[in-house]
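Quick check before the chapter quiz. The format below is the same one you will see on the exam, so make sure you can read both the input and the output lines.
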Amino acid sequence: MQGAVTEVRSLYPSEWGMPYPVGLAYVPDRDFLVLFADVNISSPISDSASVVTITPYEDFVGAAILPIAGDNAINLAYAAAADRLLFLDQAASEIVQAPMGSDGIPDAGGLARFDSSELGLGQPQGMVVDAVSRRLFILDNNPAAIVVADLDSGFAFVSEFDLTALPATDLRGLALHPDARTLFVTSPSQGLLFELTVSGSLLNTYNLASLALQDVRGLAFGPSADLTDAPDTIHLFLADNGAFDAVSPLGRIVEAALPPQDSSGVVTLRFAVIGDYGKDNEAEARVAALIQGWNPDFIVTTGDNNYPDGAASTIDDNIGKYFGRFIGNYQGAYGPGSAVNRFWPSLGNHDWRSMTCVVDSCSSAYLDYFTLPNNERYYAADYGLVRLFAVDSESGEPDGRSQDSAQAAWLSSQLAASTACYNVVFFHRAPYGSGRHGSSSTMQWPFAAWGAQAVLSGHDHLYERLEVGGIPYIVNGAGGATLYNFENIGNLPAEAISIVRYNQDYGAMLVTATTTGITYQFYTAGGILIDSYTVAKECESAPPTFTPTMTPTATPTVTPTVTTVPDATETPTVTATVNNSSNGPDYLHLPIMVK
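Here is the expected output.
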């Protein structure tokens, strides 16, 4: 439990003709709150609904009656794209779109209706729009789940996240924090507020008891109306429906403050993973735009950073043009780079085409371009919560690439000495895979036994998540080079289980590590979530600082200061994986996997 939510003030919308508010949305461009309720409160179903627009400072803007069935008044959201309000008419299986007028009042004459039957909703209890991913999130409570629809394709189904593991059966209301980009839902019977990742994983639980809510309904985040607060203060607004009898209070809008996060609480680290991307083409540009929107703490690559031959003449256009702001000691033409290195590549076969080595001393465009630790071909970088281990999987590696090589001995000893909660190993050639190249037996090292929590690779231009030795092995090579087919389905070694396969579009991974678990997600370049896999784990959260030693290239290095975390105290457990993955016509609808 992260503490109690506290009341800042209450607004009473009865003075604007809405005694029992249900739905709630915030319109940031205008700084308006939109309230939504049935017109006929004495009947559970009506043919029209009332919308009232106010400012957070309690100024009345306007009102409208919309020809929308009001039995689902909690299901209201605002979509900044096209400046529209969204309503859900569950009886008609429709999402209704109403454009906002210039006066801030929805236009009843401009309604558009979209079929929502394919979303499979049972008992929708709130919805919200993520303006970044352009997705509509709908809370369904029969059974408990979050259903995701695409704004740009007529609200087509994207994915669904199971919430039945939450300690509540009466989930209601849905809001998205605009800064943290986390979801919030309530349990009215328990007086609790749950904070979730955008893939449905539980992050925090808050107590609502001090708000004395009668019947909490819609939720929305907006800036504080208290001029004594900092300008960027964000508060949660809750629609309390009150009760429909003479002795009970009328409804209200409660502005509430979340408790400040304890410095010893949840620590979050977010990073992107791309592979086989360095083509300077439209596909890479799409993937790069996706990653820029995430604003990750750093980027990891699974090789083939510079097609076709790893040459100095192409490297900046293939890498710096798209990711220069993440690269430390950046000497390219695309901006100033990063004050500390936030780009951690691994060598692929195309990068190796410009590599020459004499004994254990190597030179190449790749080594000249990057400033990396150790010998730069394989190295470790520590972010406290997460420790990265880049490995060279190419046959030319002077220190070898077999399990008994000098390079493998280095990795084994580094993993044994690591105090990070999550040890992530990454390189190019996949130890296990169902794609064109299949499995690389040479790279089938005992990573889990040595202490790795995940193994990331590329080489096959697709996405596949497997399980080997109790940890995820992920092939992520869909960053920009021509996509491959799955040509080795059924040819995996017995110890490998293929769980999710996808090759229909380019994309990248977003990995979110906290002191309570780590989530691996793969998104298409269009922002569609294909796979989400969470491992719960309790970590220490007061990390000391640690500085990796960098190897200089053409100019003096930048030395990032990062942190370490003591060993975790619990064994990780898998909480969920998400469906909607494909591998051509035979693998279009993989089931939701729960381990």
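If your answer matched, good. The chain has a mean pLDDT of 85.
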